[in-house]
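Late entry, evening session. Most of the bench is empty. Finally got around to the prediction I had been postponing all week. Sequence below, unchanged from the version circulated by S.P.
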Amino acid sequence: MKKYDNIKNFDQLIELEHGKLGTESRNKYEENSQMFIISEMLKEARKNANLTQEQLAQKTGTKKSYISKIENGKGNIQISTLIRIFELGLNKKIGLTFL
């Protein structure tokens, strides 16, 4: 436990485990974290809309396998496709924030 003795907040823990912002390890962690968040938001919104992956794919001109990949955090998604899935398929607006 000595490795974590001086950890006071989540940011310090992430830095300890994945490195400082801008490093390759940290960038990969941040990318994976964002993909996880998007995948969970998509799953929740789709289920709340009472749609199957197949139905959502049909509404948005994609394939069920593509929706599945995104929901499992394994797909690489373009912003235009993400907007189409949420706005056309789920009737949800997307807001982007850049920090």
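Two things to note before I forget:
The two ends are 33 Å apart (CA to CA).
The chain has one domain: 9-90.
Will write this up properly tomorrow.
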